[in-house]
Amino acid sequence: MKRKIICIICPRSCEMEAEVVDGAVNVTGFGCQRGKRYAEAECINPVRTVTSTVCVEGRAPLPVRTDKPVPKAKMFECMKEIAKVKALPPDLHMGDVILENICGTGANLIAAAGRMRNGN
């Protein structure tokens, strides 16, 4: 079955068609090799960066994200783990690791905002 994919790698947003035939991905409509690789990955093992927020005691919620993409199939599992994070210390820095190797993906959950002080 052919699948339409819009590339998100660059602003050109190429409209591609991809089809898996005998384990190989055939891609048409790509404008560059990066777009072709993106379409192939979307058909075989799509990945996404997970973004969310976690509670910080006495402060506004802290934006967090994974430091690398995780398999799309594990996103909801990752969100369940993120929801369990509570009462982090109030003085956090951008890039601080909140959870290591979230859900066995090899990705760390990191703070996506700067220093948290004075109610920020």
Annotated CATH homologous superfamily of the largest domain: CPE0013-like
Please, what is the oligomeric state?
A: single chain
Any low-confidence stretches, pLDDT <50, length ≥5? none
Mean pLDDT: 91
Q: State the helicity in percent bands.
A: 10-25%
Strand content is: 25-35%
> Would you report the number of β strands?
9
Along the chain, the helix and strand elements come as: EEEHEEEEHEE
CATH class of the largest domain: Alpha Beta
Structural class computed from helices and strand pairing: alpha+beta
Give the strand order of the largest sheet, numbering strands 1, 2, ... along the chain: 5-6-9-8
Query: In the CATH hierarchy, what is the architecture of the largest domain at level 2?
Result: Roll
Q: How many strands, which pairing sense, and closed or not: the largest β-sheet?
A: 4 strands, antiparallel
Radius of gyration: 18 Å
Distance between the terminal alpha carbons, to the nearest Å?
50 Å
What gross morphology would you assign?
Answer: elongated
Key descriptive features of the protein:
2 domains, 120 residues, CPE0013-like fold, alpha+beta, 2 helices, 18% helix, 4-stranded antiparallel β-sheet, elongated
